[in-house]
């Protein structure tokens, strides 16, 4: 089997697993169902993933990487902090409006609460990577645009300003996804609160006038 064909089958299995886990949850999903959905043999599934737990873990990592990629912006010294942060957060909010992602996140959290041992490996792997917000904040500090703060703490605060409106209510309470107008309002408010507190110098927050 060529590498390209193997990669295609690997992705087909992941896609099938995501779809099946999303619809049925972890416990009701079988490797047989995933194989049938991916149109491959059960043996092929096990050749790629030795167990359902390993497959589930890779899906969780896939979710995290997609989330991190949505805010993986490089710091730009020539662009205002407000414009950069606004673009990052709006991109993040638009990503969090993806119903497939929210369904999988809901299922993943429910399963990890039920079986926290399944979270150990994924949490360790996540901690090995720096999130986009943290990297951006660190660069802004190095360029003396933000106060020297605990980067992880500040990044978590910023995540909270967004996810308290556009993730947790949808995942835990089934609330509607924020509209485009509401996502804009959330982003602007988060930018204002964050930069008012952490920017070294007063910054222009009216993006239309920058």
UniProtKB/TrEMBL annotation:
Domain HTH tetR-type intervals: 7-67
Keyword Metal-binding: no
Stretches of the chain forming a coiled coil according to its record: none
Repressor as UniProt keyword: yes
InterPro entries, per database record: DNA-bd_HTH_TetR-type_CS, Homeodomain-like_sf, HTH-type_TetR-like_transc_reg, HTH_TetR, Tet_transcr_reg_TetR-rel_C_sf, TetR_C_Proteobacteria
DNA-binding region boundaries: 30-49
Keywords recorded for this protein, A-Z: DNA-binding, Repressor, Transcription, Transcription regulation
Protein name: TetR/AcrR family transcriptional regulator
